[in-house]
Every structure is written in structure tokens, then in C-alpha cells.
Amino acid sequence: MSHPRDILLGAQAAAGMLPVCDHYSGVEERMRKSLQLQAEMSEEFGTCVFDVTLDCEDGAPVGGEEAHARLVTELVMSAPDGARVGVRVHPVDHPAFEADMDVIARDAGQRLTHIMIPKVESVQDVIRAENVLLRSYPKGLPLQVLIESPGAVQRAFDIAAHPRVQSLSFGLMDFVSAHGGAIPAEGMGLEGQFTHPLVLRAKLDIASAAHAFGKVPSHCVVTEFRNLEAIRTAARRAAREFGYTRMWSIHPSQIRPIIEAFSPDEQQIHVASDILLAAAEADWAPISHQSTLHDRASYRHFWQVLERAHATGRPLPAEVAPWF
């Protein structure tokens, strides 16, 4: 019997779904702790609920880029089976970029889930990154890209269209500073990043570009990392108001609030399950549920609710569990 994923999503089903949280760390002790925490939470939730991205761009000391790349490679290779680990390399115009790729992709490519390319300005940057990647690791890997300037936002649709690109992230702090003081410093804070018009426009453009090409939009950091209510609020708004399906974490305390904010609640899971079970019984023809018409358009939405519930470790009704 055909699976609901194939019936409802067709070719889109191949893209899959990324964990809703992407946790960044670049200092050795924190990188090791991040990998350990990922393993512990995977056991707790029954699935890997967040990615770990080891950071070469901000993590490597000046002059120590090669040694840091080798450390990152060692950590990737020593990660337990089932770990989801990516690496952020230096930007394509940085002297360490090709060395990062040569060491990390060549020696750890088979264990990596993705490579993050920061400060991408155009699709030409993606093409250059892909060429270096394939030279180092011919099997290739998904590239995630960080959009950090007004020009890159303007070209986000072209960047998202590249088949190697898996996800677009918004680099809030660099975006604000790229405006030469035209956006006040408050635009980098919790309140300002959700109120300043230029920041709002950038967030929406990036999310729209990602969804237009079936890619994953990933929301920026919240720097007030000790304020858990702040991260909950930001994550909830990113998910419900701006169309983001993934978000960065820069501190372990942020991981659970992000997962919680991006997870469907019990009522959403219950409604989605009821509708999809009735749809399957009707062989995916239109149905009426609580006096509301549903067809394959709404079925797709409710299937994605269940997929996100599964990806975030939420319990599913026994009737739909066999689909997963």
C-alpha cells in the first residue's frame, strides 16, 4: 500500500525534514558537550531532535584555522552512530576556506549531514563552494547557506534555487551591521528583530525564497541566551508568524525551548490524526470532518503536522504510528 508521504507530497517527499533546532558550538569543550547532549536527547526522545554544527568560522583562532579544522574532523569521526553533525566552514573568499573543505569534507564527508557556508552573497558563491566540495568529496553533501547582507537577501531566490542548497539561514547581526548604522543596535535584540521593518522584510524574503524551492528556512540566533522566555517567544514567533521551520541555538539551554516552540501541540496532533485516518479510509478522496470539507490540499498540511510531531519526539496516536 502506498505511504501517505508519497501520496500527498509526491516528489517533495524526497526532500525530507530537518530537525527543528540547529545547535552551534566552536570551542572544543562545548563541541564535545554538544555531541554528548545530542546523544542523550536522542535516547530520551526516540529520535535525533537537533543537529550539531561544529563551527570553524567563529571557533577557529586566527592563525589556528588548520588545527581547528583537524579537530573538527576528529570530533565528527568520533561521533556516535546516528549522530547528525554538520560543519560551518569559513566564507568562500577567506584564505582558510579551501583548506577547511579539503580537510573536513575529504576526511569526514561520509559522517557529515551538511556543510554550512557563511556570508553567501550570490549563487556564484554556492557554485564555487560546490566545486571545492566535489573536488574534496566527490559524493557531495547538502550545502546550507547563511544570508547576511542586503544584497544576499535580494538574491535569495536565486540562491535557494540551486539544487545543492538544502537550507537558508538568516544572519541577523551581520545583516544589521551591513546597513552602516541605518538600523539601530536594537535591531539585533529580541524586540528589535521582530519590529524593525528592514529586518522583518529580510526574514520574510528568506523564508519565502526557501519555501519557493522546497528548502528549509532557518531562523537566526537569540543572543539573550540566559533568558529562556525570550527564546520561547522568538521561536514561537519565527514558527507561527514568519514561516520558519528551523532555528539556531547558541547555548544548550536554548535547545529545548526551540524544540517545544516548533512542535505541534496535543490538540493539533489529534486533529491531524483524525483527518488523515478518515482520508485514508476514503482512499484520499474529499471528506467532511466536523462540518468542514477537506481534500488533498489540507491533507498535505495535516500530514506535515504529523511529520513534525514525529521529528520533535512528540507521542503519536497508535493508529497513525505505523506510518512512521
The outline comes out as globular
CATH fold topology of the largest domain: TIM Barrel
Give the second-level CATH assignment, the architecture of the largest domain.
Alpha-Beta Barrel
First-to-last CA distance: 14 Å
Q: Unreliable runs, pLDDT <50, ≥5 residues?
A: none
Listing every helix as H and every strand as E from the N terminus to the C terminus, the arrangement reads HEHEHEHEHEHHEHHEHEHHEEH
When the domains are counted, the total is 2
Polypeptide structure, described:
The strands form 2 sheets. Strands 1-2-3-4-5-6-7-8 form an 8-stranded parallel β-barrel, surrounded by 6 helices. The chain has a two-stranded antiparallel sheet with strand order 9-10. Helix 10 links the parallel strand 7 (216-219) and strand 8. It contains 13 helices and 10 strands. Helix 4 crosses helix 5. The protein has 2 domains: 17-262, Phosphoenolpyruvate-binding domains (TIM Barrel), CATH 3.20.20; 266-323, no CATH class. It is α/β, with parallel strands linked by helices and 324 residues long. The protein has helices spanning 4-9, 28-45, 65-78, 97-108, 123-136, 150-154, 156-161, 172-177, 197-212, 228-241, 255-262, 266-281, 296-311, and strands at residues 21-25, 50-55, 85-88, 112-117, 143-147, 165-170, 216-219, 246-249, 287-289, 292-294. The model has no long low-confidence stretch (mean pLDDT 94).
